[in-house]
Every structure is written in structure tokens, then in C-alpha cells.
Specification:
Layout lengths: L45 E5 L11 H10 L3 E8 L5 E3 L20 H5 L25 H9 L5 E7 L8 H12 L8 E4 L2 E9 L2 H7 L8 E5 L4 H8 L5 H24 L5 E4 L1 H6 L1 H9 L3 E4 L5 H10 L3 E4 L2 H8 L2
Parallel strand pairs: 1-2, 1-10, 2-4, 4-6, 6-7, 7-8, 8-9, 9-10
Antiparallel strand pairs: 2-3, 5-6
Helix pairs in contact: 6-7
């Protein structure tokens, strides 16, 4: 794996990054953003904020990330795409319509063009001032690392590579290049942040992405994502395609093949983390128990219902991804 123009010799530890203008911390949080009621209390599972605290604020915005840190989430889960000018932005969809006032493929725009979009009003027309102005809500990977570096405690970052990407594995290579400039250690997958650190893991539904990253990333920091492939999932994938009825059998077969390939990455330990959907866990308890019994870690998504949290805790699942970190944290502490 090569990194064209990578300036790794200029690595900048996160502790040197200027602090963002943070907001007033609620009275029930301590100075580093951890709820006082949780201090010294054992958590039965780590909690990742899915696209930030996206149940309350627009996903992948500065507001959603800051709120998740305030609420005490162990880490952030982010999706990343590559822009036309090679920047890594935090955004879920390959197109802009659902969560911004833009349209068309994200990959066709530069970062400067994306910065001019409104990515928050679709859910929250008026954000609290302490979470930043509207034009500050679009987040890059660098922006996110800076926020985590100023959290005042150890944090985790789960980076999902979104594929298919028109730029292929340039996405993975650019992500690693940026991490290296922040002082990322490929052996430990840690970034120094003063007295604290940010632990980075990598995820994808695309088995090829996980395999590409495996050249440089330790297996225990690689997560193969998958879920049960239903008719609804296939229809969702086809909704913007012409002649969708004709290609439906092919698309369904490809999706099911990718799921099997991702499962295989867990079975053969290329990926030390299994990332199943909660619906998969409900219908594949035997596989889940087998992975846990042999020492694999599970990071299950997207878990918002109390009954699902209880199920995962009863199975011994170690990591939970949720849109509502505050209430999930309460459920996993003893």
C-alpha cells in the first residue's frame, strides 16, 4: 500500500490541535464530559454514537458529535466518502439529497462546495448556538479528530469506508494518510492526545475494503460489517437504478455474496471484529455465540430499543452502536 504525497514526517499529535470552542457542560457532566453518575461504575459494553448523537441532532454534524462526547459515549461511529479534490468527509449517503440542500453525487463536489451546503436544517432548523453555526456543521475526518483530541479523555473512533466509491481504494489510502499526519501508530492504531489517546478502528460492508486495509491495520482493529439481506434491502439498493426488475436477481446475489464474504473474514480472523446488524443477531444467535466463545469481539448496529440492548448484554456482546448514546449508556452500566 502506498501513500502518494503523504507528509508523515509532519505528524501532529492531537494534543497540539487548537481546541474547538466548546459549550457549557451540563451540570450532570464532569469536566471531561463524562456523566458524574457513571464515574467508577462498570459498563457492560462499550457504546459508540452512530453518526454522533444522531437520534437528537442531524447525523454527522458537529452538533451530533459534540453531543455524543458530552453524553459520555465511548466513541464515535462515522461514515466517510472522498470528495472530488481528495478530501475525506463524514457523510452517510453517496448522494446529497436526504441530509442536505444539495443534490447529486457527493463525489462530484469539492470540499469547498460541500462546505456551502446546509447539512443540518433538514432535521434541526435551529441548532443551539453552543454547537456551532450552520456553516460549521459539515465535518471532515480532520475536524472529527480535532474534536476527539479535545475530549479530555480516551476516545474511540470507528471509521466506516463507504463503498462502492468512484475513487476505489484511494478512499482507504487517503484516510490512512490523514491519520498518519495526526500521529497514528499503525501497530497499535492509537493516536496520542496529550495524556489521553484516540483508538481507531476501521469498518466496511465491502470485503475488499477490509482486505485492503489488512495490509497495514492489525486484525483486531478491523470490523467486517454485514446484515441479513432481505427483499426490502434489495429494493432499497435498486431504487435509483434503471431496469431494476431485470437486474434484481443479480444485485440480490451480489449482496448475499458480500454478506457471506464478510462472515468469512470473521471466521478466518482477518477481521477481529464482527459487525452484524441487530436483526442479524436476532436470527443468527448460534453464529454470534460461536464468535463470542472463541474470543471475537462483536460491534452490533444500530441498537436503539431497550429489549435489544438487553439481548446483547445477555449474550455478552462487547460493543453497541446506537443513535441514542445517553440512554444506551444508562442501560449498560451496573
Amino acid at each position: 500500500m502506498t501513500f502518494p504525497n503523504a507528509e508523515v514526517q509532519q505528524a501532529q499529535p492531537l494534543s497540539r490541535v487548537p481546541a474547538p470552542v466548546l459549550h457549557t457542560i451540563p451540570e450532570d457532566l464532569d469536566a471531561v464530559g463524562v456523566p458524574r453518575r457513571l464515574t467508577g461504575i462498570r459498563r457492560r459494553a462499550a457504546v459508540f454514537a452512530h453518526r454522533g448523537s444522531s437520534g437528537l441532532f442531524p447525523e454527522h454534524t458537529r452538533a451530533a458529535y459534540l453531543r455524543a462526547i458530552e453524553e459520555g459515549a465511548d466513541g464515535l461511529e462515522i461514515d466517510v466518502h472522498l470528495t472530488r479534490d481528495g478530501e475525506v468527509v463524514c457523510f452517510h449517503d453517496p448522494t446529497l439529497e436526504r441530509t442536505s440542500d444539495g443534490s447529486g453525487p457527493l463525489a462530484d463536489l469539492t470540499l469547498a462546495q460541500l462546505r456551502r451546503l446546509d447539512v443540518s436544517s433538514w432535521k434541526t432548523p435551529k441548532l443551539p448556538g453552543e454547537y456551532g453555526a450552520r456553516h460549521e456543521q459539515l465535518m471532515t475526518l480532520q475536524d472529527t479528530l480535532e474534536l476527539l483530541g479535545q475530549a479530555g479523555r480516551d476516545m474511540r473512533l470507528a471509521v466506516e469506508m463507504k463503498h462502492p466509491s468512484p475513487y476505489g481504494h484511494r478512499l482507504e489510502e487517503r484516510v490512512l494518510q490523514i491519520l498518519l499526519t495526526f500521529g497514528w501508530d499503525p501497530e497499535t492504531s492509537l493516536i496520542p492526545a496529550g495524556e489521553h489517546r484516540v483508538e481507531v478502528s476501521f469498518m466496511s460492508f465491502a470485503p475488499g475494503s477490509v482486505l485492503h486495509l489488512a495490509e497495514m491495520v492489525p486484525a483486531e482493529k478491523l470490523c467486517a460489517l454485514f446484515g441479513t439481506v432481505t427483499e426490502a434491502h434489495v429494493a432499497k439498493r435498486l431504487e435509483h437504478l434503471r431496469f431494476s426488475a431485470a437486474v434484481k436477481p443479480v444485485v440480490a446475489a451480489v449482496m448475499r455474496g458480500a454478506m457471506k464474504d464478510s462472515e468469512a473474514l470473521v471466521w478466518n480472523r482477518t477481521a477481529g471484529l464482527a459487525g452484524p446488524a441487530i436483526s442479524y443477531v436476532r436470527s443468527h444467535k448460534a453464529e454470534v455465540k460461536a464468535w463470542l466463545a472463541r474470543g471475537s469481539r462483536l460491534r452490533v448496529w444500530t441498537v436503539d430499543e431497550p429489549d435489544d440492548v438487553a439481548l446483547l448484554l445477555s449474550l455478552g456482546v462487547q460493543e453497541i452502536t446506537t443513535n441514542y448514546p445517553h440512554r444506551t449508556l444508562e442501560a449498560v452500566t451496573v
